[in-house]
Amino acid sequence: MLPSIVQSARVSQVISVIFCVFIAACGGGGSSTAATGGSPSTGAAGGASPTGGSASLGTPSGSNGGGATIPAAVATTLSIKANGDRAVQDGSTVQLTASGPMSTESAQWVLAPSSPGSLDRTSGSTVTYTPPGTDANVNNTVASVVVIATVGTASARIELPLTLSPGTTTAPPALGVSPAPGAATPPGAADPPVPASSTANVRLLAGIEYGPSIVNGTGSAARFAGPGFIARDSKGNLYVTDDAMVRKSTKDGVVTTLAGKPGAYGHVDGTGAAARFDDLEGIVFNVDGNIYVADKKTIRRITQDGTVTTFAGNQSATTRDGIDGNGTAASFTWIGAMAADNAGNLYVVDGDVPAIRRITPSGDVATIFRVAGLPIVGRARGIAIDAAGNIYYSDWNFKKDCISCQEFFSSAIRKITPAGVVTTLAGTPDLIPGNLYSQSLRRDGTGSEARFSSPGRIAIDGSGTLFVMDGDSIRKVTREGVVTTVAGTRSGNLNTDGPDALFSTYDGITVDPDGILYVSGNYAIRRVQQNGDVVMLAGRGPVSRGSGKDGTGPESGFAYISGGLVSDPAGNLYVADDNCTIRQITPLLGAITTIVGSAGDCNRVDGDVTKARFARAAGLARDGSGNLYVTGTASPIRKINRQYDVISLAQSSPGGALETVIAADQAGNVYVPATNVTATDGIAKITPAGTASTFATLPTDGLPRALTTDSEGNVFAVTNAGILKFNPAGARTVYAAANLPSTRAMTTDRLNNLYVLSTVGIDVMIQKITPDNQITTVYKTPDPDAGPRVSIYFPNALAMFDATTLAISNGRGIFLLKLP
Fold first, then answer.
1. How far is CA 78 from CA 8, 12, 74, in A?
2. What is residue 304's three-state secondary structure?
3. What pLDDT is attached to residue 722?
4. What is the pLDDT of residues 120-156, one digit of tens each?
């Protein structure tokens, strides 16, 4: 059943006054007004969308894309003016006034999410904004303050850069934020310099931000690149290995970097960012007040001020067996998990077929146990020590019979007494049939009746109870060997809160004296309550699949944005969601609404908005009349008119990896790679009447990996020969000669500048190419030496959000990139 909001939206397009959306202005008097003019531009993957121009959602007079005649929409404008250029932490207040042709006495005001400070009222034509005080935590992901006013169906927003007050020691604003043009910086409150590699600011508009990033901050504002092992001190602070760093999180989720530098690997002793780590594995907090980490073949000691020294082992050791000795005279083969006892001794698992080595407080290294004599030679990924000196480690093994192709595995928690007696506390060390990671073989029980799938990291509390990371679950093992599942179920999601949360195989785990667990991994630190509920403490990681729910905030989201992203003149964004729907995202608060299709109903049905269904929505484009065009696997190209009626065009859309590649021009012509249309290598053109023809042939250049158009009807294609430009008649020129295998998407603005999105690994680059072929870089993932780096993990589409802002999708989130 279609949400009522969609039906209301359809009616409002025909008979109602439609609101305008405007661009926030941070300088020149701090005014935000509705845009009233401009020319069309092209959305991501080729969908044409006017930007920076008319903010009307109404259809042009005499056309609705479906044959009916409707009146021209009447634009209701609203603007906000401020008596200052910016907000200063602990500084003077800023007065904001709403104005427009209508009465603004009933205006409703709200601070956008993540905007610090407060408003003195929520309604009226004028409000006063009070910046946060110096006692407030303003982390380095807060770049500005956004205030929104609404009168009826008209809304406006103003964005004020946020500057720290003079002398404050709180974290600076987000990396890459510079003062607005013409905005003065208060004396003593200089903003940090903007690195050349990061010339624009990125913020999340809707969905879930995920992927490897490195940002210090509080709670969900902090970001991790790949947190691994985790340890806890006596004050409740957490320490986690992350990329080439050791990060610290307070019990309130305030994350800072203790030592190391993002992406800067090596083996260098030093303090803070001057230190270098090679391959961080285990971590432990010792009774001497220092943190110890396993760094490939060495143990490194980190003091509370971030000073790093090499405590034991040496990186140049080449022996296959560890050599006992003192300090750097000792050697290790490869150090994994670590633990510490009450006397300050460290215990490490050394090697793939492991030995357990003990390091005294004075740095003497001795091998106290090797597993080679056991019936089953397993691998240890976790180790813990109880108050009595008993050692516990996770023992697992895997074997495949090459004749029968049957798989066998063993998994157990083993106990070694101070006298060296080895017993199995829970699980079985014997090989049994089954896949090593199979959840179906996991079983609660006592001793040998219990089963683990892939036991890994281990934590131990004051009573001697063990907590074991076991695949996507946390298992509890008592001193008597009774095994129960504490958190993690087969039906849950990675990094969600609540009892159904899941974990990954290599998560780190630690426990506090009250039995509260802390788990690191999957780009976040999570807290597991005693009742099994999971709460995000710091960071924000991916879920196994997006929610696909309409709404705003963390509960809403996308199933997966395959690559289609376009915008309309009002700044609304549209995406093709993998749950067989077309979704709309509003520009103010990022509200997500399903406008066509029904989530999970993946039949291909033409018809009006109440009946239309998609087998799978992949690519998306938009023409100058507001019609949308959708591609899907082995499906006809579908057209959605302004009333959200859906029809199938006569021709088939591309298949395979090219199913998301589609563009549309202002006149309603659609362009797709000519895989299953009229040619084998080229670009096909499909007219509004559904007639297909060969627009261009590309016999040696390869099929286009991205397409877009501009307001003059030119078509741009990314091929092996570079970026090719075709005029409306199909005549070809080389627009940017280069082999661009990493180019993911393109779009154009109202001035016909071309924006090209390329990725290499997790690094992102967006380049601007002017009509006279001048190329500049408008965004690049910050270099590690520039400080914290924020990555948009695997972006796949571009669209113009407004005249100075790009929208970028990455599967489950939509980001806004303010252009320089």
1. 22, 18, 13
2. coil
3. 83
4. 988 899 999 998 887 665 544 345 688 888 887 677 7
Give the helix/strand (H/E) hosting 274. Answer: none
Length, in residues, of the chain? 820
Rg (CA), the chain: 29
Token pair belonging to 259: 């030592």
* pLDDT at residue number 720: 79
Other Cβ atoms less than 10 A from the Cβ of 787: the count is: 21
Residues with Cβ within 8 Å of residue 401, at least 6 apart in sequence = 407, 408
Name the phi and psi angles at 291, rounded to 5.
-100, 140
In which residue ranges of the chain is pLDDT below 50? 1-76, 139-142, 165-200, 373-377, 653-657, 677-679
In 3-state terms, what secondary structure has residue 805? Answer: strand
Spacing of C-alpha 402 from chain mean position: 41
Residue 4 has what DSSP assignment?
H
DSSP 273: G
Q: Return the number of other C-beta atoms located less than 10 Å from residue 177's C-beta.
A: 23
Q: What is the pLDDT of residue 680?
A: 58
Residue 631 · residue 663 · CB < 8 Å: no
Closest Cα to residue 477, out of 495, 494, 461, 465?
Answer: 465
Cβ neighbours of residue 4 under 8 Å, at least 6 residues apart? Answer: none
pLDDT for 785-817, tens place per residue? 665 666 777 888 899 988 888 999 888 888 888
DSSP assignment, residue 138?
-
pLDDT score recorded for residue 682? 85
Provide the pLDDT for residue 175. Answer: 23
Contact 33, 75 (CB under 8 A): no
Give residue 391's Cα distance to chain centre. 39
Phi, psi of 590 (to 5 degrees): 70, 30
